[in-house]
Write a structure and sequence with these properties.
Length: about 190
């Protein structure tokens, strides 16, 4: 148990789960426990704790919705990157965990189009794995269909089933049509002068 001496320190007991968000000070780390944020003496944690890097990614990868909710409630960064440059959203899409993806997409400021070290986005992952319901969810949130990965492939080119390909083609077609019609309207305005 750690009893805080100042208002900015965080109370926690043995067995509590601490979400560490800042270790820049070697003596005092910033962390969150049970929805409260404050400073934690690093020696308490470093000596006795089991560590899980990227807990939100692990929860998303495993489809563990309750753990993911706990991460969100404890202010774990929604767009944090793991060693491969993946976000939790990428892992939720890659695993086909629709409920995880739904929760992540409901968070403000979730980055839909973050590319990992291979250049893949969550949309690339969902298309490649053939999860058309997740492809549709991402497209409904306006995920970009024009991003190419390091192999110069669009999500459409990675789609492994007809349903994913159809959704992506439809979205790309509507984007092209919209751009084309805007250009025509612009030219019509110019011509009328």
């Amino acid at each position: 148990t750690f009893d805080p001496r100042t208002p900015d320190e965080l109370y926690f007991e043995e067995g509590d789960i601490l979400y560490i968000s800042d270790t820049s000070d070697t003596n005092w780390w910033k962390g969150t426990c049970r929805g409260r944020t404050g400073l934690i003496p690093s020696n308490y944690v470093a000596e006795q704790a089991e560590s899980i890097d990227n807990p939100m990614h692990e929860a998303a990868k495993r489809g563990n919705l309750s753990w993911l909710r706990e991460c969100v409630e404890n202010k774990v960064g929604i767009n944090g990157l793991d060693k491969a440059g993946n976000t939790a959203l990428y892992w939720g899409c890659h695993g086909g965990h629709k409920d995880v993806v739904e929760l992540l997409l409901s968070q403000p400021n979730v980055e839909l189009n973050q590319q990992n070290k291979l250049g893949d986005t969550p949309l690339h992952a969902a298309a490649w794995k053939g999860y058309s319901d997740i492809v549709e969810m991402l497209l409904n949130k306006n995920a970009r269909t024009d991003i190419r990965n390091n192999e110069n492939k669009l999500a459409l080119e990675m789609a492994t089933n007809a349903q994913c390909a159809s959704l992506l083609k439809r979205k790309q077609g509507s984007n092209f049509t919209r751009t084309h019609s805007n250009a025509e309207e612009y030219l019509d305005d110019e011509d009328s002068d």
